[in-house]
Design brief:
The protein has 196 residues and is an alpha+beta fold. It is built from 4 helices and 9 strands, in the order H-H-E-E-E-E-H-E-E-E-E-H-E.
């Protein structure tokens, strides 16, 4: 009797598992999914950029004129944390490039945002200004301090991409569609005056 009851429990458990498996398989096939889809969505950072430009005590930088293939994926402005501006991108090869700015002490801020990169003592020209070259195990960076803020262009991308980003940085807000990373907004067509 006990053996029969034990066999019945095992059979019930197997049947329950089969039902659960069927439900999971059904849900998986019904819900649309694209395994090749990029999980990172492109962000439109114009609102945050405008807010940061009004709030920050230094010129907030954003790229202008980047070629197609660059995608903005993250943006933040933390006024209560050293007036910190962050803009994250993926380059055309899907390597990360971040633009970081802050009024925090550069000696602490730069190692923090570069994940402990070190100053190599070398420099690089980009966008008409001189940047310090930093190297790290995970991120490399270009660094400069100007007008009360430290600007860091950092990421996993090769130095040529960091230079490309640094050269594109400007303090003026870009027009919609000016970079390859922002959606363009259609402009209204001018209306022609009616002729009598």
């Amino acid at each position: 009797m006990a053996a029969k009851r034990g066999n019945q429990k095992i059979r019930d458990m197997v049947l329950s598992m089969a039902v659960i498996g069927a439900v999971v398989a059904g849900v998986y096939t019904v819900i649309p999914h694209d395994e090749k889809a990029d999980p990172l969505k492109t962000v439109d950072y114009r609102v945050e950029l405008s807010t940061a430009q009004r709030s920050a005590p230094y010129p907030i930088l954003s790229p202008q004129g980047l070629p197609e293939g660059w995608r903005a994926t993250s943006v933040t402005y933390r006024g209560n944390e050293g007036k910190a501006w962050h803009l994250g991108f993926l380059d055309p090869n899907k390597e990360y490039v971040g633009v970081e700015q802050s009024t925090n002490d550069p000696a602490k801020y730069v190692p923090k945002v570069t994940l402990s990169a070190k100053d190599t003592g070398k420099t690089e020209q980009a966008g008409g200004v001189t940047w310090q070259v930093w190297k790290g195990e995970k991120y490399d960076a270009l660094v400069r301090t100007d007008k009360g803020a430290t600007t860091v262009v950092t990421g996993t991308a090769p130095q040529a991409r960091l230079v490309e980003m640094a050269a594109a940085l400007k303090a003026k807000q870009p027009e919609p569609g000016q970079t390859g990373s922002q959606p363009s907004t259609p402009k209204a067509k001018p209306t022609e005056p009616k002729q009598d």
